Amino acid sequence: MVLKNFLSKGIQNNQLRLIFCTFLIIISLLASSCIKNDEEIITPETNGSTLACKKKPSQISFGNNKHDIKYNSQDQPFEVATTIYNTSAPNEAPIKTIYTIEYNLQGRISKVSTSKNNQPDLYYVMEYNADGKLFKQSEYNPLGNLITYTISEYDNNSLKRLISHKNSSNIVVTTIYQYTNGNLTKKSIQNLYDVDSNEFYNADFTYNYYLDKENKIKPYFEGTLGLLFISNVSVKKSLQYLPDGNNYQLFYAQESSSEKKMLKNIEVIAHRYNTSDTTNINYSYEYDNDGFPTWQKGIFKNITRRYVPTPFGGSILLTTPHNSTFESTLKLSCN
Q: Which residues pair with 114 in a beta bridge?
């Protein structure tokens, strides 16, 4: 599942944002739940040390950031409230976002509405094909004006391609996914826009995993809706999320439902400025007795390459390395 300079340059107002594609909620029943109606918080008599709570937490904490979840009588989240601090400005007030989730008669997500700091924000509408797969999702502003829509293509049960159209322009951004043994291993985004160089470019993502470590956490956001959630939590304006030196893995939001193992490494190569920018992030974890992650560490290495003018005319290629380390604890709790 960001490179703040990389993201802010490659993905701005004129650049199409991929919006969310699919959204699967997979959460187990709690034996001691008490339910009264479809929009009441289920109150489990458990704490974060029990397996039932780990599968269905009412609060997830990543360091100081918190995610509070309310479930309906079908054990589906109908509200997710996030409290997120800006790591680069820790004294600022946190951003509070509420995701309100609606379901159709078939139990699939039909709409997700968001509000930030008590103000209405974007909302998203999903449409499904005859096989029950999400084939179109549309993004609207609070006034109901269409911003972007995305068409999804599948290969068997895996998301193969996303084609996103921005309503105010003719720009189309295409994302192609590749899988190996059930894990997302490569993603290529075509036709990104860089506002500094005023040019379009492509970016390639490569993913590696700890093959002996199963990802036991079941997300409440998956697909590009998962990417949307990740980018929002990371205080980014775009769905095209790129992890940077301060951003931890959320676990409860995934880009693909095919992610079966714990992520080990992400490599991102942006092909622009007649050269390439390269980013590598290596992840390590600690686990509890049930195999759930309780701590994560990331080592971030980024190299930017830019041609800069010289006083004597012409230009030279300037290579700048960036290195950082970040850590985050993961805590689950139940009411």
A: 99
Does the predicted TM-score (pTM) go above 0.90? no
Token code pair at residue 326: 């970040």
Output 5 or 189, whichever has higher pLDDT.
189
> What type of residue is 85?
Y
Nearest to 159 by CA among 254, 250, 78: 254
Q: Is 280:314 a contact under the CB 8 Å cutoff?
A: no
Are 294 and 287 in contact by the 8 Å Cβ rule? The answer is yes
Query: Tokens 């390590």 — which residue?
Result: 284
Residue 271 near residue 198, CB atoms below 8 Å? no
Does 102 have pLDDT greater than 90? yes
Where do the structural domains in the chain lie, given as residue ranges? 4-333
DSSP characters for 279-318? EEEEEEEEE-TTS-EEEEEEEEEEEEEEEEE-TTSSEEEE
Task: For residues 242 and 193, give the distance between their C-alpha atoms in angstroms, rounded to a whole number.
Answer: 15
Distance (Å) of CA 74 to CA 21, 33, 108, 250:
22, 11, 12, 24
Question: What is the pLDDT, as a whole number, of residue 254?
Answer: 78
